[in-house]
Structures are given as structure tokens and as C-alpha cells.
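REQUEST FORM: STRUCTURE PREDICTION
Request ID: SP-0412
Submitted by: Lab K.M.
Chain count: 1
Length (residues): 291
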Amino acid sequence: MTYTAEQLDGVQRIKRCRDYYEILGVRRDAGEEELKRAYRRLALKFHPDKNRAPGATEAFKAIGNAFAVLSNPEKRLRYDELGSDHEHVSTGQARHYNYYTEFEADITPEEIFNVFFGGHFPTGNIHMFSNVARDAHYYPRRHRAERAWTQEPEEEEHRPQNSYSAFIQLMPVFIIIIVSVITQLMATNPPYSLFYKSSIGHVVSRETENLQVPYYVDKNFEKNYQGAELQELEKTVEKDYIDYIQTSCWKEKQQKSDLSNLAKLYRDERLKQKAESLKLEHWLGSSLSFL
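STATUS: Completed
RESULT:
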């Protein structure tokens, strides 16, 4: 893991900060645009995909939390009223800024970064935080106990592996792959598909008799399915189609709702317009499927 002295100094500076304004490097009367500029600059500088110095991940989270609080008028007002009292609490040791639960953000640093940069680091190298354990240096957002971010150095364990130990660790993966391949070879193709699939021979278009749901079958379908068997299969086709439409509708509504909430939270006109222009393509189909 390589990093520059400048990157390490930057991380240590963030750790020494005593308040959110100092973390972002802005004045206490900084406006919305100044906060955004400061966040963009620092988020790119301390993103763990670019800054590999010890503590960069925690610094990145602190920057995101600082922006989330100061960009929210209500949280910022409460922070300005109460934050100064917390900042001057002395423990007799080195003074560090305490992160109190009343100043926690309602959105994660990763979500904030995605809003600004479209879901990925500008270089194209995505860094996921879903599996990063939160230790004593950074608290869970909804834990009610008081926590402090210290300057203890991060400890990293380097465990060398030889070829044999690496093979043993990868063996379960190989077994899963082999079983999956064997299962696919032994499995028979389904009698129909909701979409055109030439790879399994579903190229003949049909419609169900009841709801006229389109589906695709192979060339031997009519020889194998007639009468009561055909009716039962078409009931299954219609049920699968309705489930597909409902699921697609829910995903579209959820995406639209998420964009609207983010636009409202950060007063972002671009996100608001994107949410309003998002079409619910499957919503009409979901409504008609029950007629």
C-alpha cells in the first residue's frame, strides 16, 4: 500500500480538527456553494480509492458527515448553537473533536459521494464501503452512546500466503462453480419465456387466451402442450407476467422516490428535474394487468 507524505499529513490534519467547519476548511458563514466546492475538493482528495494513507477511510467519512450536517439548515443551526460547548470539553489529554449523535447525518458519506459524482469515483475505480467494519474511530449513525475519534494509528496485518493456502481458500469457490456448471448442463429448458430467447429455442411468439399476454416457446411446443395442460401453463405465464410488471413498477417508483428525497434534502434542482422526468414505464402495465 503506497501513499505520499502529503496524503498522510492531510489525514492527520482531518483527525486534529475540532469542528465540522475546520474539517471542510470553510468559514462559519460559508454559503451552500462554498460548502459544495469544499466537499468536492476534499472528497476527491481523501477518497480511499485515491488516498491509501492510514485513516483515509475515516477522514473521508468525517468529510461527508461534516458536509451533510452543515448543508442541512436545521442541523447546522443546532450544531452552531450547541457545537461550541462540546468543542471546548477538555479531558486533560490531546484535544480531538468529538462527534455527537445530535449532529449525525441522515445520509451516509458514500451516498453523498454518489450524489456528487454519479455513483463512482471519477477515475472509474469504484470503492465500496458496505463491508468496511466501523470501529471505535467512527461510530454507527444511530448508536446513542457518545464517541470520540482518536489519533491512534491504524494497525494493518499482513498475512503472507503461499500457493497451497491460497488454493485451499479458493477451493469452495471452485466447487460452487463446478456444481453450477453441472446443474446447468443437467437442467432442462423451461417450456416458455416471457421474452425472445434464441439461445434456448424460444423464438415462436404466442399469446395467452385469457389476458393475451405475449410469450415465446420452441417449435415443438404445440406437440407437448394441448388442452388442460396448455391452460394450466398459460395461467403460469400470466402469473409470471404480472409478477414481472409489479416488480418493475416497484423498482421504478422506488428510484423516483429516492431521487426526489435526495433532491429535497440537498435542494438540488438537477436531481429534482431528473426525478420529475423519470417515467414509470411499467406502472400503466401493472394497472392494466388487473383489469
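NOTES: The chain is about 55% helix and 5% strand.
Reviewed by: T.R.
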